[in-house]
């Protein structure tokens, strides 16, 4: 049988298909055996491109985090830098919510995370914050972003009005929240982000 003109495997293709599996089946749904099957190869073939599943997850995480935009700090306005970085971070996580728990463990040795954190930290220190304060501010921003990415407040309510009626007088319209969850979650994120930056 002749060799295919295009190789079946490449690092890029492996990461793309693995992320598709994570998006569809969750983190626990990704296995090297399943990934190999979807790529049409044997599992052993993958190990020429990636040593372990954990290494593969770090590579995927690195690519997801490359979408986080920290160019807003270049203007010298650290407030605008924080806001634009947080918005793009949330958007990157929202595109692939199933990998968020893996990303939430911190920057680890991921180059994309560390490069962006370096920009944030440097901009804050240049603006006059101490190194400790800059670390705390970056950590606080991550709490806001990951909190928004890991959960939806508005979707967590029942659409059955009888759950709230007569028992929780101040939640008499809570059954309407799931229908506008995306809008409310977005606005809640923006409110929290604005309050955080204003408070700083």
Automatic annotation (TrEMBL):
<dbReference type="InterPro" id="IPR003012">
    <property type="entry name" value="Tet_transcr_reg_TetR"/>
</dbReference>
<feature type="DNA-binding region" description="H-T-H motif">
    <location>
        <begin position="31"/>
        <end position="50"/>
    </location>
</feature>
<dbReference type="InterPro" id="IPR004111">
    <property type="entry name" value="Repressor_TetR_C"/>
</dbReference>
<dbReference type="InterPro" id="IPR009057">
    <property type="entry name" value="Homeodomain-like_sf"/>
</dbReference>
<keyword id="KW-0238">DNA-binding</keyword>
<dbReference type="InterPro" id="IPR050109">
    <property type="entry name" value="HTH-type_TetR-like_transc_reg"/>
</dbReference>
<dbReference type="InterPro" id="IPR001647">
    <property type="entry name" value="HTH_TetR"/>
</dbReference>
<keyword id="KW-0804">Transcription</keyword>
<dbReference type="Pfam" id="PF02909">
    <property type="entry name" value="TetR_C_1"/>
</dbReference>
<dbReference type="GO" id="GO:0046677">
    <property type="term" value="P:response to antibiotic"/>
</dbReference>
<dbReference type="GO" id="GO:0003700">
    <property type="term" value="F:DNA-binding transcription factor activity"/>
</dbReference>
<protein>
    <submittedName>
        <fullName>TetR family transcriptional regulator</fullName>
    </submittedName>
</protein>
<dbReference type="Pfam" id="PF00440">
    <property type="entry name" value="TetR_N"/>
</dbReference>
<dbReference type="GO" id="GO:0000976">
    <property type="term" value="F:transcription cis-regulatory region binding"/>
</dbReference>
<dbReference type="GO" id="GO:0045892">
    <property type="term" value="P:negative regulation of DNA-templated transcription"/>
</dbReference>
<feature type="domain" description="HTH tetR-type">
    <location>
        <begin position="8"/>
        <end position="68"/>
    </location>
</feature>
<keyword id="KW-0678">Repressor</keyword>
<keyword id="KW-0805">Transcription regulation</keyword>
<dbReference type="InterPro" id="IPR036271">
    <property type="entry name" value="Tet_transcr_reg_TetR-rel_C_sf"/>
</dbReference>
